[in-house]
Inverse folding.
């Protein structure tokens, strides 16, 4: 009783999702011997190259949830490095260099960090971590209590190159391992929630979700490109990684 529990929650990527193999990422909670490898996704980002110019860069990102403390090991697959840095600096996360291709560090609480090698900020690894989300059963019970429609998307690759319109009084639950290539469109609606651990990244690189002329909207835990919001009221973004 009173003992701190150390647990990790991982979500295997579905077949079809764009992955990247520059880094191998392993995690283990304190008190556990075995390392668990987690999938690393590819995202296109607009990277500065000087002289006010930009070019599209492919970066790596990975995500998991945990309670307690967790050890993280990152192995560079395609390069050797001398120095490593974990930002934001103010968090004080120390990169312990194991050798010229591996670092290890510890997270004492969930946060979002950028792991950078030899000062390179366009070939970095973004690591997104959170507390575990509410379960599908908990979300469903809450939606029914509110008199809402409840829609759950389980793990899988949803190749929807169009808008997924969400009507009023609806809760959408996205399981970890759900990957969408379309846009969640909340338009002229009210009392809408999108919760869970899904990824929404259209192939063209733009809106994973948008909120237009709507009110009382919650987006919690979604990983996406951009999420434009306009002419709306009472919109809450929580744990949204962009």
């Amino acid at each position: 009783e009173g003992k701190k529990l150390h647990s990790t929650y991982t979500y295997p990527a579905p077949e079809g999702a764009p992955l990247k193999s520059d880094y191998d990422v392993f995690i283990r909670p304190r008190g556990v011997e075995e390392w668990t490898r987690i999938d690393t996704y590819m995202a296109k980002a607009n990277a500065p190259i000087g002289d006010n110019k930009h070019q599209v860069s492919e970066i790596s990102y990975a995500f998991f949830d945990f309670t307690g403390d967790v050890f993280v090991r990152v192995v560079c697959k395609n390069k050797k490095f001398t120095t490593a840095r974990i930002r934001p600096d103010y968090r004080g996360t120390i990169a312990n260099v194991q050798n010229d291709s591996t670092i290890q560090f510890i997270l004492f609480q969930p946060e979002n960090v950028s792991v950078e090698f030899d000062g390179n900020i366009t070939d970095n690894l973004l690591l997104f971590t959170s507390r575990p989300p509410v379960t599908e059963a908990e979300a469903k019970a809450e939606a029914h209590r509110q008199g809402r429609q409840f829609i759950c998307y389980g793990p899988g690759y949803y190749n929807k190159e169009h808008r997924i319109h969400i009507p009023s009084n609806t809760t959408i639950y996205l399981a970890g391992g759900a990957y969408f290539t379309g846009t969640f469109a909340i338009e002229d609606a009210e009392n809408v929630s999108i919760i869970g651990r899904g990824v929404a990244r259209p192939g063209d690189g733009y809106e994973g979700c948008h909120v237009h002329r709507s009110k009382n909207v919650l987006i919690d835990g979604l990983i996406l490109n951009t999420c434009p919001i306009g002419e709306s009221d009472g919109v809450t973004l929580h744990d949204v990684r962009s």
In short: The mean pLDDT is 95. The chain has one helix and 24 strands. The first helix runs from residue 136 to 145. The radius of gyration is 19 Å.
